[in-house]
Amino acid sequence: MSFQNSVSKLGSPVKELVQSVAQTENSLTGKTEKDQAEVVQWIDKVAQGDLVKAENIKTLNATLVPKTYIATNYLTAADVALYGALHPVISKLQAPEHYSHPSVTRYFDHIQSCPPVRKGADATSSFPVVAFDFAGAPKIEHPAEAPKKKEKAPKDTDASTSNPQKTVEKSQDTGAPKKEKKEKKEKNKDKETVGAEASKKDSGKKDAGKKGGNKPAPEDEGEPVPSMIDLRVGHIIDVQKHPDADSLYIEQIDLGEETGPRTVVSGLVHYIPIEQMRDKYLVAVCNLKPANMRGVKSFAMVLCATSKDGREGGIELIQPPANSKPGDRVYFEGAEFENATPLSQLNPKKKIFETIQPGFTTLESLEAAWVNPVTKSVHKIRTKEGVCLAPTLVGASLS
């Protein structure tokens, strides 16, 4: 079925809104044949009317959890149609009801803020802006994974399987004289020593179960390297000023996670206008320990370039290459870094990010990179689509 046929099934004024916006945005029908089919399919669902019924909002909310847009990874007519169909439903709800389906609320607010949609909606009286109190909404928690508890061997049992006779000797007292027990103990000790030496020669494995055995090395042991940092492409789907801090933004950033967008607090109010933050794609540091910022917990950090002349010289968001998607891996060029797995969470006590950060910079080409302070080798920061850039700043510091 064609795009026009699908749009014709929409009721007024949603149909007129879609037609108006589609006239100004060529990509609204879909950039590829596959995308075009998805757009038509979703418009048909909206036209049927069941998608936005009260009893189906919960299902729609679950569908929208990992999505920024409903049909593709960019704005299409399907989003305009769904926004128009949702408007009379959302506009009647009160704040507590908004919070009961946060993904729908987040999606609706994002679409209504997109410039082409807002322009088309403002041309009619049917789609006024619906205001949301995101600052007062319950915060989405992203707790760190609890460390696994180490199992301790019972005091009266030897955890090693190389000498089960010790357990028998301690748990079953046969009444033998002390001298005999002592001799058995010495013989068993000799056997255990020989067995341990043979095991070392044959397999080289460490016996961690014995008292004094070596523990596995932590994953962040050794010199800090850039690949320990978890960088990903993010997409700002909502941004508001912090209610209790004039210099802070509170952003909802889509990082391609099933749990939905992360709440991130950034001190950029005095450097980047809020209009330039909305709908922005960026690079986020995702494995820092969550931090409270004036009462709001932040679960990531936005990577920015600061002028070599200081903050007064300007601060810019590092931009991922075109066609990037939320959650895309951002990595450092170089055989030693490209296929490395970042740490699940950086240990603040080891100051890994702080040690590496002085090497972050922007080149003459505006490309973001890490320069090894020892070898002076340059490792560009990139995704599979290309290298990440600063808009204008050369020789900037990244943090």
From TrEMBL:
Q: Which UniProt keywords apply?
A: Cytoplasm, Protein biosynthesis, RNA-binding, tRNA-binding
- Localization of this protein: Cytoplasm
Give residue ranges for domain GST C-terminal: 1-132
Bias (Basic and acidic residues) ranges: 140-158, 167-210
Q: Where primarily located?
A: cytoplasm
InterPro entries reported for this sequence: Arc1-like_N, Glutathione-S-Trfase_C-like, Glutathione-S-Trfase_C_sf, NA-bd_OB-fold, tRNA-bd_dom, Tyrosine-tRNA_ligase_regulator
UniProt xrefs under Pfam families = Arc1p_N_like (PF21972), tRNA_bind (PF01588)
| A molecular-function term among this protein's GO annotations | tRNA binding
Q: Where is the TRNA-binding domain?
A: 225-331
UniProt keyword RNA-binding present: yes
- Its transmembrane ranges are none
- This protein's name: Nucleic acid-binding protein
